[in-house]
Amino acid sequence: MFKIPKHQVAGHQAIDGNLGPLVDDSGRFYKPLQDDERGTTELAFYQSFSSKLPHHIRGFFPVFYGTQLVEASDGSGLRPHLVLQDITSNPLNPSILDVKIGSRTWYPEASEDYIQKALEGDRLTTTVTLGFRISGLQIYESKESGYWKPARKEVKSFSADDVRLVLRKFVSSNLEREPDCCFASTTYGGRSGILEQLLELKVWFEDQTVYHFHSCSLLLLIDKESVLNGRTVPFVEVKLIDFAHTVEAEGVIDHNFLGGLCSFIKFVSEVLTDSKVSTIEASFN
Amino acid sequence: MFKIPKHQVAGHQAIDGNLGPLVDDSGRFYKPLQDDERGTTELAFYQSFSSKLPHHIRGFFPVFYGTQLVEASDGSGLRPHLVLQDITSNPLNPSILDVKIGSRTWYPEASEDYIQKALEGDRLTTTVTLGFRISGLQIYESKESGYWKPARKEVKSFSADDVRLVLRKFVSSNLEREPDCCFASTTYGGRSGILEQLLELKVWFEDQTVYHFHSCSLLLLIDKESVLNGRTVPFVEVKLIDFAHTVEAEGVIDHNFLGGLCSFIKFVSEVLTDSKVSTIEASFN
């Protein structure tokens, strides 16, 4: 009944006897509870967030159903898992972008070892320069060619220009060097599109002094088929995941997340603006 | 004709035979040009900024009059100085707050030595936790007691609560443990008050991809006497200074400055909100 998730793009994977998350057929996602401080922190977050966040913000987080003892994927026996909403269970062919937000994934309360390792990763990726980094992705192209899912090593070495290209490919029907961005206006744009959702999050982050989300990911999910099939509301979702390093804010806004989010918003809005310009140019030709 | 500035609160000072800035009686400020990369970078910034920034943002920067050979304050002879507007020449008794904005004062292009030193300073101060740190200040109290100007060592060790207290004292007639914040509404608040000016800067930083301002300071200047004397427009100024580490943005917003600025805005707005609540409470008693 438990299966390896088909659409996981980052994080530990339940393959080759490793410990990783599982899903079932009812749309639930089982994330193994890490047995150190990270597990405690993430569980504490899920147990408290719904009472601490305003209603319109809760939808950005996966639904939490509690914990459950489940046979671990590494064969080590029963282990407590967080039971969460499987946010990839609905779309048929989800294109997914996992974006770790913030120009700093370390935080003062962490161990010195953690800080040094995180800082090194931040300097080697676009985290410091762009205020975010892409941690993983899959982009659906077609029935014939399936998904483009670059290897982790390739994703880790993305430059600013690679990020720009990925954000264009993510909303294109072709994955060539010059993506057409034909889904930009219906996925990034629109009244409940990705940009509007990100701006809603931004307004909240300008004011909220509840949590500091270190090393947390923004997950963008779209189903390009749903746009092609002419669904009135295309499948477009923005979710926050990974709270193993989420700490209390102590009266200060999460300026690290907010700065990175604003930078990411600028990247997305540039794709949207450019695609509008192309559409206008095309209509004149 | 050249004098040591009366109202300098941070940075190198032209005292005891050291190299530091000078002022004259015509309202100009002479900053020694550092003879390494910092000097080149700061000069390049001042020579180019007015053509690169929108008109309504230029007022946040000191006017630049060019360079001039001036007898250096350390007795080493003639040295090129940046000739700038002396932003403290107008108010009679300026209260000044120098706030270094950003949760990171280092940047990838800097030398490894600089990065390690800057990172250490960022972790020892409120830079990492609050996204900014107070680098220096003076607060005018009265003719009798003059200014409160804590020693640099004290300023460096400020906690988040110390910062909150300083931001209240800055707009109070008394400097005791319970400052009255009686100038909050006329200096932080109001149509051209500090908060409005900071929000104007913020809007620009959400979009600008011209400069990244590392280790740059926001200077708040107010003249409480001008409020007491019933001037229709009290003396309230927000300026950006120190551009020795300002680099080109390469198409990315300055998420580090923006995040810190938003955090500082939240601190200022909290003082303003609290002071309004106190006023309402007082009017009911």
From TrEMBL, chains A, B:
| Record keyword Aminoacyl-tRNA synthetase present | no
Q: Which GO terms describe its cellular component?
A: cytoplasm; nucleus
Keywords, in A-Z order: ATP-binding, Kinase, Nucleotide-binding, Transferase
Q: Which reaction does it catalyse?
A: 1D-myo-inositol 1,4,5-trisphosphate + 2 ATP = 1D-myo-inositol 1,3,4,5,6-pentakisphosphate + 2 ADP + 2 H(+); 1D-myo-inositol 1,3,4,6-tetrakisphosphate + ATP = 1D-myo-inositol 1,3,4,5,6-pentakisphosphate + ADP + H(+)
**GO aspect biological process, one term:** inositol phosphate biosynthetic process
Report the top EC class in one word: transferase
Question: Mind listing the GO molecular function terms for this protein?
Answer: ATP binding; inositol tetrakisphosphate kinase activity; inositol-1,4,5-trisphosphate 3-kinase activity
According to the UniProt entry, what is the EC number of this protein? 2.7.1.140, 2.7.1.151
- What's this chain's function? Inositol phosphate kinase with a broad substrate specificity.
Name the family the entry cites.
Belongs to the inositol phosphokinase (IPK) family.
Q: Which PANTHER family match?
A: INOSITOL POLYPHOSPHATE KINASE, INOSITOL POLYPHOSPHATE MULTIKINASE
Entry protein name: Inositol polyphosphate multikinase
